[in-house]
Structure formats: C-alpha cells, structure tokens
C-alpha cells in the first residue's frame, strides 16, 4: 500500500525554425518561424497551461515543474499572462521548480562544458523570473546515464528524475527512492500510471476506459512502495487530452479522491525523507521517449546524427544564442523516420510534416556558417 504520490510536469516549447529553402542560403538570416511559434504558444497557453494551473491552485494540489528557457523566453514574448499564472502558483507554496538545460538540449551526451553552461543559464533564469533556486534536476526528456549523474551531483543537486527501466540493476520497482553510484538521489517514473493519464485517458478501446479520479486514486493506494512518481508533459491537460475528454474534471477531482484514500501529494524534494532503497547503476543511456526509452528518438538515424555532427562542428562560427536554439532536442526529434505508434507521436509534433523536410531546413540554415 502506498500513501504518497509525486506529480511532476514538463513545460517546454521549442522555438521552431521556419522552412528555410536552399535559395535563401547566404541571403536571409531570418531563421525562426515566430508567427507559428506565437500561434502555437497562445493556443496551448489558453487550452492547457492557464486552466490547468488554475485548477492546481483552486484545489491545493502540490506539484513539481520544470520550465525550459525556450518556454520562458516565448512566454515573455508572446503571452506573459502564462508566466503570471506560474508565478502565482509557486508563490502559493504548492509548487517546486526543477533545473534543466536552458535550451532543452542534448548537451549532456556530447559536451560537458556546454551542459554545465546551460544548467547555469537555467538556474539564473529561475532566480530572475521566479526568485527560486531549484534544489533538484531533470535533464531533457529525462535523459540519464552515470556520467550525467556525476555532473549533476557535482553541481550540487539532491535528486535527478529519470525513467524506470529494467536496464537499471537493483531496481525492480519505480516506487522507491534510489541513489546512483555517484551518490545522487534518483526518482524513477512509474510509466504505467503516468501513461494511463497522458496516453490512455481518452482511448475508448482501453479496457479501463473511462478513467475516473476515484479509480486512479485506488490504483495509487494499492501500489506497493514508498512513493508513486507520476511524470508527464503538462500539455496532457487540455492539449493532448482535450477538455472535451473530461481531463480537467479528472484533475479537479483527483485531490478529493486522494484525501479520501489518505494519499499525500508531495513535491520532488519531499522524497528526501524516504530511505534509499538501493544503489542502482546502468551501462545505458535512459530517456522517457518512445518505447525504446533511449536516445533513438534524437540520434536513431543517419539524418539525425549528421545534422547534430554538422551543428557541433560549426559551433564556434555561430552566434552563441542561435547555437543554443539550434541545439534544442526537438530539431532532431522531428527528423525521426520510423514506423508504428512511436512515429505517429513524432509526426504529431513535427511542424514540417516530414522528417526529410526537417533535416533539409535545418542543414540549409547551417550552410550559412
């Protein structure tokens, strides 16, 4: 039986690059698709971020967030009201903020100095915008390996979030607090209970449909372990799961049902009170993306690898700010060219409707340098 749950939400918007044609190389240094960025940002703010945050406030729901630097910059440009909503939530004492890479990049796997620089940039942005110094960390898309753990531990964070997988030794359940071989605290995502909301909530062919707050609280209560880690994209509420599905009513009712079941809604830093279950290790690099839960969503084909290698080879020739935006993981995610349900998700997010277009537009921009 479990009496504790931690809800963590990723908040990120990439600054999308516009369709950039070969004839523009050397003639046009306007690279961002800001008309589309503004349209998408305003839509999701109104459908998801603002109403979901209002529900958290009104129902006294504790939660933990990470907000990428690219999200905050676009909020400042396109929709400051969404930042006001988050500021109010964090001032209430209900929320915790995590640090991450400023540009939501893959820097942790290819450049330690760049990785540390972006973490520092993010920490400074959290302090300037919210007046908060985060104590814990989540890497882009929960990407983790032991070297990333070493860097994060040495910076001084208490805990890191990542995905539960059988590639960790000594971890047979996500419902405990662990440490890695660097001594860094670890919380592992319970992907079954997380995906019940983020992916299956409106699936009418799912045997558990419809998912009610009462049913969900019961599942949490009857799980074994110390704490259930529910980690997901914040856009689940209102964007990926439209308001017509009843997702907001579910969220509104969840706190009441948790109280009925004596379930505590905690923040990430509250997990420090639990005993460490074991020290775990892995020879792999882990993420929460796709069924492989590895790096293949960003480096799984030759286009992605070539695009990343070209970018890194030109880093000293590109303006520092632009170089940061070009490192955003979404740019490589759009280039995935697989099949099946994973590829359907890639195509859902791809503004260019083709991985090949994503590759050509990206590398065309790099030709300017």
TrEMBL record:
Classification via CDD domains: GH57N_MJA1_like
UniProt-recorded Gene Ontology molecular function terms: lyase activity
Annotated coiled-coil segments of the chain: none
Keyword Nuclease: no
UniProt domain Glycoside hydrolase family 57 N-terminal: residue ranges: 6-270
Pfam families tied to this protein: Glyco_hydro_57
Keywords: Carbohydrate metabolism, Lyase
Matching InterPro entries: GH57_Enzymes, Glyco_hydro/deAcase_b/a-brl, Glyco_hydro_57_N
GO biological process: carbohydrate metabolic process
Family membership: Belongs to the glycosyl hydrolase 57 family.
Protein name: Alpha-amlyase
Organism for this UniProt entry: Acidiplasma aeolicum
């Amino acid at each position: 039986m479990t009496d504790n749950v931690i809800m963590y939400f990723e908040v990120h918007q990439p600054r999308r690059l516009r369709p950039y044609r070969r004839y523009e190389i050397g003639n046009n240094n306007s690279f961002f698709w800001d008309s589309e960025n503004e349209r998408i940002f305003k839509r999701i703010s109104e459908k998801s971020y603002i109403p979901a945050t209002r529900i958290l406030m009104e129902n006294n729901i504790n939660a933990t967030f990470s907000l990428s630097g690219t999200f905050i910059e676009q909020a400042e440009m396109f929709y400051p009201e969404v930042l006001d909503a988050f500021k109010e939530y964090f001032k209430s004492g209900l929320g915790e903020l995590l640090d991450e890479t400023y540009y939501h990049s893959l820097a942790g796997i290819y450049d330690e100095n760049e990785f540390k620089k972006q973490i520092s940039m993010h920490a400074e942005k959290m302090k300037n915008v919210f007046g908060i110094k985060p104590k814990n960390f989540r890497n882009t898309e929960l990407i983790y390996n032991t070297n990333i753990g070493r860097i994060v531990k040495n910076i001084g964070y208490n805990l890191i979030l990542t995905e539960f997988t059988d590639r960790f030794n000594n971890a047979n359940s996500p419902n405990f607090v662990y440490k890695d071989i660097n001594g860094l605290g670890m919380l592992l995502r319970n992907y079954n209970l997380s995906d019940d909301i983020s992916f299956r909530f409106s699936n009418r062919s799912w045997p558990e449909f419809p998912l009610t707050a009462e049913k969900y609280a019961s599942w949490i209560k009857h799980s074994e372990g110390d704490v259930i880690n529910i980690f997901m994209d914040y856009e689940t509420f209102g964007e990926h799961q439209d308001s017509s599905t009843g997702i907001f009513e579910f969220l509104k009712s969840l706190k009441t049902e948790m109280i009925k079941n004596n379930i505590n809604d905690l923040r990430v830093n509250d997990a420090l009170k639990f005993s460490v279950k074991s020290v775990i290790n892995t020879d792999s690099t882990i993420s929460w993306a796709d069924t492989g839960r590895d790096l293949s969503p960003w480096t799984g084909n030759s286009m992605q690898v070539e695009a990343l290698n070209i970018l890194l080879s030109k880093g000293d020739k590109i303006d520092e700010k632009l170089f940061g935006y070009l490192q955003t993981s979404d740019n490589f995610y759009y280039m995935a060219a697989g099949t099946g349900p994973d590829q359907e998700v890639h195509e859902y997010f791809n503004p260019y409707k083709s991985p090949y277009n994503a590759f050509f537009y990206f590398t065309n921009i790099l030709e300017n340098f």
